[in-house]
From TrEMBL:
This protein's GO CC annotations: nucleus
Protein name stated in the entry: Uncharacterized protein
InterPro entries: MAD1/Cdc20-bound-Mad2-bd, MAD2L1BP_domain_sf
An annotated GO BP: regulation of exit from mitosis
Length: 248
């Protein structure tokens, strides 16, 4: 991999919730800043749920009304809503699957976000590196959003903004690929494909964020009993086609 530009993000904790939500929030931020989605992931989730609710309500109203004019109007509205749902469905499904996949990683050492046609030839490359192995047991409560998670996520995004993320972007939809470094024994074929090593073939300078604890008592050594290798998440996110006028 090419030599990267590094920035350190200091924190007092690197628990499972902080690591998970920082990864997911940075992923959504990169999609938005690189014009791959029209609004934030949170706003898109609200819109997506709203479209489903509207569609169900129209279906219920259709079942209790016999007038032809009423049914034609509702069918037209339902077709429009269904097109909106279909446009967002793959993206929202991939985003949900990535969240599920990240929760399965036993130790988060590094995460790579590659934006481009393939992970080997990306237009943009971002690396999140954590200063010690952080266990993420598969218990839903461990991933509840906390104040510490919010604080770390905000620090990471402020750092990305200060480095000019999104100021130079590639026009048109791209794919966002996620790679994680985990023990070689990690076996989740439904969500991850082992890559052993990862090397970028395109001359792109990655931006690396190093998350480091200020509290030395919390730092623990990363596991050494097993080799750490790269795994590529099977759930790549393809950006939505949007009408954006390039800056002159």
């Amino acid at each position: 991999m090419n030599e990267s530009e590094s920035e350190t993000v200091s924190t007092t904790t690197l628990d499972g919730s902080s690591v998970f939500h920082t990864i997911i929030d940075v992923l959504g931020f990169l999609l938005y800043m690189h014009h791959q989605i029209p609004s934030t992931v949170q706003d898109m989730s609200i819109e997506f749920d709203s479209l489903h609710s509207q569609y169900k309500n129209l279906e219920m109203e259709m079942g209790s009304e016999a007038k032809a004019s009423f049914r034609r109007k509702h069918l037209s509205q339902m077709r429009d809503i269904k097109r909106g749902i279909k446009r967002m469905d793959k993206l929202m499904s991939a985003f949900s699957n990535i969240q599920t996949a990240i929760k399965l990683i036993p130790n988060v050492e590094e995460v790579i976000f590659a934006l481009g046609a393939t992970p080997l030839r990306p237009h943009h490359l971002y690396i999140l590196q954590f200063s010690h192995g952080t266990s993420l047991p598969i218990v839903a409560d461990d991933f509840a959003r906390t104040k510490a998670a919010d604080a770390l996520s905000r620090k990471a995004i402020r750092t990305l903004i200060s480095k000019g993320v999104g100021s130079v972007t590639y026009p048109g939809p791209m794919k966002l690929f996620v790679l994680v470094k985990a023990p070689s024994s990690f076996n989740q074929p439904l969500h991850f494909l082992p890559k052993r090593d990862f090397r970028c073939n395109r001359k792109v300078v990655p931006l690396r964020l190093l998350f480091k604890c200020r509290n030395q008592d919390q730092e623990t050594a990363a596991p050494t009993s097993e080799d750490l290798i790269w795994f590529q998440c099977r759930h790549a996110i393809k950006g939505l086609a949007m009408n954006i006028t390039p800056e002159e």
